[in-house]
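[READ THE FOLD]
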Amino acid sequence: MPSSAVKGIQFLVMFPCSCPAKSWRDLAEPLSLLSLSGDITGSVSQNLDQLLQMPVGCGEQNMVKFVPNILVLQYLEKIKQVTPKIKQQALEHMQSGYQRQLLYKHDNGSYSAFGKRDAEGNIWLTAFVARAFGQVRAYIYIDDQPVKDAVDWLGQNQLPSGCFRSVGKLFNNQLKGGVDDELSLTAYITASVLELHLDEKAAMVEKALGRLKKASHDVDSAYTQALMAYVFALAKDTEMRQQLLEKLDEKFLKPGTDESMTGSSLLVETMAYILLAHLSQPEVTASDITKFSPILHQLNQRCNSFGGFYSTQDTVVGLQALIKYAGLTYREAGNTKVMVRSKEALLLEFHVDGKNQLVLQQAPLLGIPGVYTVQVAGSGCVYVQTTLSYNVPAHKSEAVFVLHVETAPVEGNDAARKHFDHQVAVSYTGDRGSSNMALIEVKMLSGFIPVKSLVKALKKIPIVKRTEVDPEKVTIYLEELDKTLQNFTVSVEQEIEVQHLKPATVHVYDYYQPGDHATAEYNAPCSSGWVRNSVSEANCSVSKLPETWTRSC
């Protein structure tokens, strides 16, 4: 816009009606943070090591610490904005991510979430790893053999029909269901092999494309349609790509979304594949960019404050789409001034130019709740995001997890002051039959640390795939949970004596649908507190059943 122009956008920062004033007025720290960058990748490039505030301790989650570095570096090289610091950080993450991923490799070339602790490789993860290894070769040295072994193993699991046989447990059980299981798997693997540009695998690809083309008219799932559209875009089959996008554009290029997937990682993936399919056509015009900007807007709305999304797969695919868009629309920053005003005064002022275009600028937004105006003067483009943190009260809805926590021994004595056990019982009560991979996080009371040897022993339980111990919490990775109540014991010992202990929490959640969770509080057996058993509900930050209280001393 002309340098003399001033444009303003008004926005409202409010707490939901269910949040009482007391729950936010008593907090000392700022609750709202305004972030600004001159580039759509600003938050990503500044947070490559923490795109997700979730554990990344298995072979699929490790990829979120690995792949985004490749995407960001590709983009920054394209726009000639790579800084030595960002490049060094990205290369270090690539090297460590590559080495760590090899720990999850099976002897036959496949990969699984927990490596040889799993009975067999996982065909989804193997395709994901092969594609990433192929991309990272441009930046670090890797052995060609793992890529060859992985793709050969994928080929061994291709059926005469052209589809691929499902091997290993799916990451996310939202992807299950009818014929779309087989087709989405085939499309995913085909996209991975196409992105590797392996001429020797042309026959395998053609066979898969033939099957997908034949089945395309019978697909109802928006996710599978979007993934197939991207596959045909990679294969340069313009006719098939357009046929599939016409169905999807009716749903996603207008206000509203597919309500069956609202707020989920699957919705992010679906929109990202639609955007990638549009952006992968031979020529993208300015009118094309305008046409599918609603999808970009919906993706940006679902970004977290670090540039990631809900979980692993959607973060990688979502970033791939956003970065491809950014590469097509990038222009060097001019000289832009951004002012944030309340009704009463000028609160914040930022300046964006070519020197700090990729810098993520942040400042607390004071005076919330309230109405604010962002005014922009100068020339260029800026991306502004507000992050609001608040407490919400418990409320009843459909239960997803049941979580019971007790400390033992129940009676306080001298021994219990030094050492006690958490007895955790958990089950899944949602409508899917079983959860996805679930994680239990046991936060430590002040002055206590986990007994590492006893936590490690939990891996003898069949559904426990991994445990992690740090001074502040224990994380237990569970393959899945169903309606069967599962029991775990986490032992702790006192390291430093602390007076007037405050309660700590035990948290269980579905890794791929974090809104499905439960939280329970506990205190030491010799404290004058209580242990709360709680049940969580979907889409509620803090949740419980009518309280059941157990006296802890």
